[in-house]
Write a structure and sequence with these properties.
This protein has 243 residues and is of the alpha/beta class. The protein is built from seven helices and ten strands. It has one domain: Rossmann fold (3-Layer(aba) Sandwich). The structure holds 2-amino-2-deoxy-6-O-phosphono-alpha-D-glucopyranose. One of its GO terms (biological process) is N-acetylneuraminate catabolic process.
Length: 243
């Protein structure tokens, strides 16, 4: 695991965007795994600027998002469909058919999870998987558990995640209780992984992921077993790492 420590959010966003942009330039048909949350917003802005300046072309890029809340339709303002549209897709030239996000409003969630997993496998290997990090060490929506999830499935959100994500909803009761998330196995299957983290709230999780014991109780710790992981994090998020 290579850890790049930067000064602040802006530097993290810029550096992460450069790595993603390099992937798109090197391989215009690349398959990207994308993430939501506050952390990637800045790097998506950087990508949009590069696109507007004529430096990037997304017309042949395919994307798979990590997760979606169960019960929220694509038009819901807190859905990850909506997030991706507003923060990235409506500003760049991705083709609609190349964008993949699990449907949180599917009638049968396990069927949707299976369909999504098969769609990823059919399309090919995710070349660069972008990840944020939950305060409890989750990646995607793979919560701490007694075993690692292998494939895409429905996840029951922990109280700490509901708490952390409550800020986007009017009331705590409005936060969905479950989500569809691609599995840890699916994430580990990606060619390269780029994890971004910022702020002291992430410091404990960053330490456990980078230096802790590999355990499903800290889902991100499995990344220690992946051959090509880059972590880009600011000083606050890396404050607890051994110097
Ligand atoms: C959500 C998402 C994760 C994300 C995490 C951290 O739970 N499912 O993919 O990494 O939030 O979000 P933030 O970047 O807002 O701290």
């Amino acid at each position: 695991m290579e850890v790049k420590i930067v000064e602040n959010y802006q530097e993290m966003s810029r550096l992460a965007a450069i790595l993603l942009a390099a992937e798109v330039i090197e391989n215009p048909h690349t398959i990207l795994g994308l993430a939501t949350g506050s952390t990637p917003v800045g790097l998506y802005k950087e990508l949009i600027t590069m696109y507007q300046n004529g430096k990037l072309d997304f017309s042949d890029v395919k994307t798979f998002n990590l997760d979606e809340y169960v019960g929220l339709a694509a038009e819901h303002e807190q859905s990850y469909h909506y997030f991706m549209k507003k923060n990235l897709f409506e500003h760049i030239n991705m083709k609609e058919e190349n964008i993949h996000i699990p449907r949180g409003d599917a009638a049968d969630i396990s069927e949707e999870a299976l369909r999504y997993e098969q769609e990823i496998q059919k399309t090919g290997k995710i070349q660069l998987q972008l990840l944020g990090l939950g305060e409890n060490g989750h990646i995607g929506f793979n919560e701490p558990a007694d075993s690692f999830s292998v494939q895409t499935g429905e996840i029951v959100l922990t109280d700490s995640t509901i708490e952390a994500n409550q800020r986007f909803f009017e009331r705590r009761e409005d936060v969905p209780k479950t989500a569809i998330s691609i599995g840890i196995g699916t994430i580990m299957n990606a060619e390269k992984i780029l994890l971004v983290a910022c702020g002291e709230k992430k410091a404990k999780a960053v330490k456990s992921v980078v230096e802790g014991r590999v355990t499903p109780h800290v889902p991100g710790s499995i990344l220690q077993f992946h051959p090509h992981v880059t972590v880009i994090a600011d000083r606050a998020a890396t404050a607890l790492l051994k110097k």
